[in-house]
Write a structure and sequence with these properties.
The protein is an alpha/beta fold. The protein has three domains: about 110 residues, no CATH class; about 130 residues, Nucleotidyltransferase, domain 5 (2-Layer Sandwich), CATH 3.30.420; about 80 residues, no CATH class. The strands form three sheets. Strands 7-6-5-8-9 form a five-stranded mixed sheet, sandwiched between helices. It has a two-stranded antiparallel ribbon with strand order 1-2. It has a two-stranded antiparallel sheet with strand order 3-4. α4 crosses α5 and α9 packs antiparallel against α10. The relative contact order is 0.14.
């Protein structure tokens, strides 16, 4: 193939069989680069970038493009970079007003379809850890003919305990998966995708999620805990601004560690009830109702609280903000759920620090 030569070898069998030419399964490309793309060392005739036998792009170019889209680059931008590196920019009509053929994104979209599975194989978690925090992000098209269309990304971060029952240093992303709806069926599919069962699941107050946990994990002893930050925020909504502004007020001072110990929780309950009876800032009817519903849940969680574990959904929300940044305004482009799942797997691999374009080549 002109401009895309590959190294071939002579085989001269010692047993007298006819000599013949052959190429290895993963051939070496002699062009377009006659030098190492990283250190500029000149290549010998038998050296070069590894690539498939009958394909125009080297494995390195494919791998770097996959890393690029995992970090949030669009398919079109990644395709243009790959084509220019490979010297495969198609000839276009300089007078045409449409976009350049060099940045047609279907090239890299196809690479995600074909390569993401084996690239991520063995690199993603396949079992649930001791503790996970779960949440979801709604991605929606904001304008145009597809206004309102979109999908949800369900996410989990996790931490495990080692041989000495010590926690891993920080929570890490465990799983990302897209769904058309955020309902019980979606959460059941999400939890059922990995082996085992976590000991603790932390989430916000989502009834569909709670039902899915009971449906998937049943009697396996999973403890479902509500996020302490969400619980405290909901309570603050029901308290007067004058109370929250006064750091010395018994309610405000008790809020700091109310979710950490039974004693601190008792102080908070007493302070709210005393303020409600006094009527100084009006009756705290909504706060009292909160104590009767979510307050009971919060109090019941205190005895099993691990101060070194995950007690809020903050870590998973941070991951979802990063996914939101990487997807950006391109929500309407992700209409293929299977491909989006593979792209999210690549993003998970990157967030775990395992995405390296050179591994493919």
């Amino acid at each position: 193939m002109p401009g895309h030569r590959r190294q071939r070898w002579w085989c001269r069998p010692l047993n007298g069989d006819p000599k013949h030419r052959f190429t290895p399964v993963l051939t070496r490309q002699g062009r377009p680069h006659s030098f190492c793309v990283e250190c500029s060392t000149g290549l010998e005739p038998w050296e070069g970038q590894a690539g498939a036998r009958a394909y125009r792009f080297a494995a390195r170019e494919v791998g770097e493009a996959l890393v690029s889209v995992a970090k949030g680059t669009s398919y079109r931008a990644a395709a243009e970079v790959a084509r220019r590196k490979a010297g495969r920019v198609p000839a276009g009509d300089p007078d045409r007003r449409r976009r350049s053929p060099a940045n047609e994104g279907q090239l890299v979209a196809n690479w995600v379809d074909v390569c993401a599975g084996f690239v991520c194989a063995g690199g993603l978690p396949d079992r649930w850890p001791h503790t996970i925090a779960v949440d979801s992000q709604n991605f929606r098209v904001r304008s145009g003919p597809r206004d309102g269309a979109g999908f949800h990304v369900l996410a989990a971060v996790g931490r495990d305990k080692g041989d000495a029952a010590r926690w891993a240093p920080i929570p890490r992303v465990w799983r990302l998966e897209p769904f058309g709806h955020k309902d019980q069926a979606a959460w059941e599919a999400f939890f059922g995708a990995l082996d085992g069962a976590p000991r603790v699941i932390v989430s916000d107050a989502d009834n569909a999620l709670a039902l899915a946990i009971r449906s998937v994990f049943g009697e396996s002893g999973v403890e479902h805990r509500l996020c302490e930050w969400h619980l405290a925020r909901k309570l603050r909504y029901h308290l007067p601004e004058e109370v929250l502004a006064d750091r010395q007020h018994p309610i405000t001072s008790a809020l700091w560690d109310a979710f950490h110990s039974i004693e601190a929780w008792a102080r908070l309950e007493q302070a709210i009830q005393a303020e409600h009876r006094s009527g100084e800032h009006g009756p705290l009817t909504l706060a009292i109702k909160w104590l009767d519903t979510y307050g009971r849940i919060a109090k019941a969680q205190i005895p099993t609280r691990d101060p070194h574990g995950i007690n809020s959904t903050g870590p998973v929300e941070q991951i979802l903000r990063e996914i939101d940044r990487r997807i950006g305004e391109r929500v309407g482009s992700f209409t293929n759920r299977t491909r989006l799942s593979k792209l999210l797997d690549l993003m998970t691999l990157d967030l775990l620090g395992k995405a390296d374009g050179r591994d493919l080549g």
